[in-house]
Amino acid sequence: MTGPLEPLSPTDRTTVKREQDHAVTDRAALHALLREGLVAHLGVVKDDHPVVLPVAYAVDLDGPDDHGTLYVHGSVAADWLRRSVDATVCVTVTELDGLVLARSGFNSSMNYRSAVVIGTVRLVDDVDERDHALDLIVDHVVPGRAAALRRPTRKELAATAVLAVPLREASLKVSEGGPDDEPEDVEAGTWGGHVPLRRVADAPVSDPATPGEVPEHVLQRARDLGWDGGYDGA
Amino acid sequence: MTGPLEPLSPTDRTTVKREQDHAVTDRAALHALLREGLVAHLGVVKDDHPVVLPVAYAVDLDGPDDHGTLYVHGSVAADWLRRSVDATVCVTVTELDGLVLARSGFNSSMNYRSAVVIGTVRLVDDVDERDHALDLIVDHVVPGRAAALRRPTRKELAATAVLAVPLREASLKVSEGGPDDEPEDVEAGTWGGHVPLRRVADAPVSDPATPGEVPEHVLQRARDLGWDGGYDGA
After folding, report:
1. Does residue B189 sit in the same domain as residue B208?
2. Which stretches does DSSP call E strand in B121-223?
3. Where is this region: Disordered (chains A, B) (predicted)?
């Protein structure tokens, strides 16, 4: 992607309509959330109803699509994947940051960041783009891991489909901080506040078959995800 | 709900088709995940495409629907909510438990528990059921909180819609442990393993307007969510 960040929500279907004060029109914030998230929820229409499934993903801001590309992958035999090709899907990435405990149920809520991307799925058939996208998905989970692994085999590639969703139509909603209560509820003296939540990693666990030393890129990723660097009993 | 737990996936559309070894046909495990989750991703069809949004929810196993009821709520003015009434939606709750770092990109994955519920939405118009559902949603976030708050006002209730989704059609997929690699990749000696992930709470933060003592039900919830009970500087 070149040029300045363009505001989000360029179309009606990705305009945040409710609680517009929580809408963020800043592509940098969208990109930061998509970098931080680990699981996306992909929605696809099956017959007359939606199906929502958790998927791994990666983003390539220099990808071939307008405003960058979001990639997901799956088995060529997966029903959701076959239904997604050339269809319009919704990919939502949510990070939960806390519980907002207002003085009323009505004003109680959660702190979160949520990106909603709507776009028409392109089946990636260019070999180089597909290889790159698969590496990006591996490296999204643990940066540096793709370089530590062998290349995919011909058989693995034949069994795997990569889907591309343009990042053009996207919205971001962010809620943070404490409760926003009615003045009379604050005056009544009821306690209000919030409970921050975050995701943390525990110590990497080596597979017993090849215990060896945990590679530095794995240790680094665990530390970046909040692991304090200690092993049980070590 | 009365009687023994019935197996999950009674219909074609909630049968786990891929990686069937990960499908769990145990309603108790489904209920445990739905109790633990805090955010659901609700998918609804809008025109020709799905929209997937994060929502708070609660479950009532003694609810009026077959196999229990999942409740969500929202503003009566929300577009997704109006589209959901009498439509078939998909409600997915995913807890991410770890990164599975196989010796190949192909076998790399994540540890997670994911429940997929598909059902036709019933707008809750019974006053008692609606009151109870709203309490359940408040108590799902922090058990005991509903009793600590004033009752909703007539105006708040008029602005809020509660939707019920029967828990009848549901599937659960669970992935846990280390990687499942090709024998030749294990023999090659590449490191493989997994990084456990979990959600933790930090110390509850009181709103400055009513600092007071943090109520015991809030402290307890934070501890249950992994808070170690310590305050910064305390």
Report:
1. no
2. 122-123, 160-166, 170-175, 193-201, 205-206
3. 1-20
Same domain, A175 and A214: no
**Cβ-contact A83, A46 below 8 angstroms:** yes
Alpha carbon distance, N-terminus to C-terminus of chain A:
46
- The predicted complex's ipTM stands at 0.91
Give how far B110 is from chain A: nearest CA, Å: 8
Q: Do A75 and B18 touch (CB under 8 A)?
A: yes
Residues A213 and A132 in one domain: no
With respect to residue A4, please indicate whether it lies within any of the assigned structural domains.
Answer: no
Clarify whether residues A190 and A227 are in a common domain: no
Partner-chain contact B110 A56, CB within 8 Å: yes
Stretch (H or E) spanning B93: strand B88-101
Closest chain B CA to residue A92: B52
CB atoms within 10 A of CB B108: 23
- Across the interface, whether the CB atoms of B195 and A221 are under 8 A apart is answered yes
Total number of domains constituting chain A: 2
Which domain does B224 fall in, by range?
200-234
pLDDT at A10 over 70: no
Residue B70 CB-half CA count within 13 A: 32
Nearest to A54 by CA among A85, A18, A91, A3: A91
Q: Kindly list the residues from chain A whose CB atom is less than 8 angstroms away from the CB atom of residue B79.
A: 17-18
Mean pLDDT of A165-188: 96
CA distance B3 to chain A (A): 29
Residue A1 belongs to some domain of the structure = no
Q: Is residue A147 located within the same domain as residue A214?
A: no
**Cβ pair B199:A199 closer than 8 A:** yes
**Phi and psi at residue B24, to the nearest 5°:** -115, 125
With respect to residue A173, please indicate whether it lies within any of the assigned structural domains.
yes
